Inverse folding.
């Protein structure tokens, strides 16, 4: 349970995430065509978008990242989903804020969790209770 | 996975054919990049037959498989003001997304 | 550490951790444990796939290139059927399931550089990469920055990697967006004429096979870049399903 001040922080970050397209949005009555097209442009299709040079780094892989990769692949191996379902869920059906805010495998593990619920392999409450149980097991507040 | 699907859909193009990428509306999901839509290219290779990503992404296993191709584009055709004459780009597209471009 | 999970009693000390477990680690454990509990796969399936995923790396690609450089008949087979040529050097794209991995498919195309043609690979839509042959892709390869810019400003990006090519060399970007997987077969550099296959393989680094670098006789590793260290790297402490931290 977040404290009131933690909750306030979440609200602050949430309100900063919302205007990701730099225009205040409040359920407009209509949307200009270009806005419509840009909003429906699948987030993963980034080729050709302008960006500034960065220093390309090497990143050591975390154990949970490898475990996530393997879990998603084994779910494919066993026919629970195919890789294209994962790519769509992981890359597109999450909104731009999550697309850019989460690490690469953060999106993978999130879409695996959602797939288990969407395909009725677990109920949402089962998933929530499992997450709570794992947090308690590892002493995470 | 080696789950390659084959069917009876005709393959309309051969290596060397000029094609144009269709400019279908954008909704929910695609693996046809915006930057190639409406642009003319050349068939560089025929690859395999399989389900289209727009079907596979919703697990439509019984959908019609189609021929895929590697299509080569001139960078100057893809990007306004691209400064290098000879540079090219290749990407892979299914039959359904292509139409003949003539000369 | 003994398993003492008394969830009704929160007085026992928290599990000792070097660094607090992250939200993604929690979610990963929850998903994996639920999938096993529901019978979607077994811990043994996961272990078997992990064993495969931990041993893949760019060394396979390096050996393929070195052999192609020294054996013209093999090179012809590499260019006509990449997956079959991989089998000749002990890399089986059908592993670890017998039918390949769900994400890599069994369609490899090797792109041969010439004095007038240079290839470089990218996946603008996600991170498609020939894992069985080159291992896991570097994080920068998956980054929106590389994916955004490489297709439109390839020479600028290559320059940032230290690779400057003259305008008369055609740069061909391969945007890997469907089921084919691509690898670059670079040109054998001058000064390596008497080298053995083993020696040659040492200079074919990962970056050369992505196409952001060229092999050089004096370089056996990719250019040094900043490294972001993992807090719990692969091969270290492992959260076993249902196990203690």
């Amino acid at each position: 349970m977040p404290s009131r001040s933690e909750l306030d922080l979440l609200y602050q970050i949430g309100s900063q995430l919302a205007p990701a397209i730099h225009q205040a949005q409040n359920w407009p009555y209509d949307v200009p065509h270009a806005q419509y097209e840009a909003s429906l442009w699948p987030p993963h299709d980034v080729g050709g978008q302008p960006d500034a040079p960065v220093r390309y780094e090497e990143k050591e892989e975390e154990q949970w990242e490898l475990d996530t990769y393997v879990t998603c692949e084994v779910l494919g191996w066993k026919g629970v989903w195919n890789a294209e379902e994962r790519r769509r869920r992981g890359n597109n059906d999450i909104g731009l804020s999550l697309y850019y805010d989460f690490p690469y495998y953060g999106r993978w593990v999130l879409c695996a969790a959602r797939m288990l619920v969407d395909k009725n392999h677990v109920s949402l409450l089962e998933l929530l209770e499992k997450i709570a149980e794992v947090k308690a097991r590892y002493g995470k507040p | 996975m080696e789950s390659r699907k084959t069917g009876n859909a005709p393959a309309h193009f051969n290596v060397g054919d000029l094609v144009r990428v269709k400019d279908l509306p954008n909704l929910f999901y695609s693996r046809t990049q915006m930057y190639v839509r409406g642009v003319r290219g050349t068939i560089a290779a025929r690859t395999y037959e399989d389900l289209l990503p727009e079907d596979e992404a919703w697990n439509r296993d019984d959908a019609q498989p189609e021929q895929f191709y590697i299509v080569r584009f001139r960078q100057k055709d893809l990007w306004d003001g691209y400064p290098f004459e000879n540079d090219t780009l290749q990407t892979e597209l299914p039959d359904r997304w292509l139409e003949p471009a003539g000369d | 550490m003994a398993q003492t999970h008394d969830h009704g009693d929160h007085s026992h000390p928290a599990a000792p951790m070097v660094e607090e477990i992250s939200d993604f680690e929690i979610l990963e454990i929850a998903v994996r444990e639920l999938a096993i509990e529901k019978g979607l796969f077994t811990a043994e399936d996961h272990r078997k796939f992990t064993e495969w995923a931990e041993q893949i790396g760019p060394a396979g690609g390096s050996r393929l290139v070195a052999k192609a450089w020294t054996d013209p008949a093999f090179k012809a087979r590499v260019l006509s059927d990449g997956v079959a040529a991989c089998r000749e050097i002990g890399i089986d794209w059908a592993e670890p399931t017998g039918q390949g991995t769900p994400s890599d498919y069994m369609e490899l195309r090797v792109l041969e550089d010439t004095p007038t043609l240079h290839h470089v690979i990218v996946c603008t839509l996600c991170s498609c990469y020939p894992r069985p042959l080159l291992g896991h892709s570097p994080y920068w390869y998956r980054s929106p920055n590389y994916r955004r810019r490489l297709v439109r400003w390839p020479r600028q990006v290559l320059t940032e990697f230290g690779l400057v090519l003259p305008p008369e060399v055609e740069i061909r970007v391969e945007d890997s967006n469907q089921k084919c997987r691509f690898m670059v077969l670079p040109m054998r550099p001058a000064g390596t004429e008497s080298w053995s296959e083993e020696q040659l393989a040492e200079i074919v680094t990962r970056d050369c096979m992505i196409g952001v670098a060229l092999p050089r006789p004096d370089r056996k590793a990719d250019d040094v870049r900043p490294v972001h260290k993992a807090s719990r790297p692969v091969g270290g402490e492992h959260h076993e399903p249902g196990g203690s931290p």
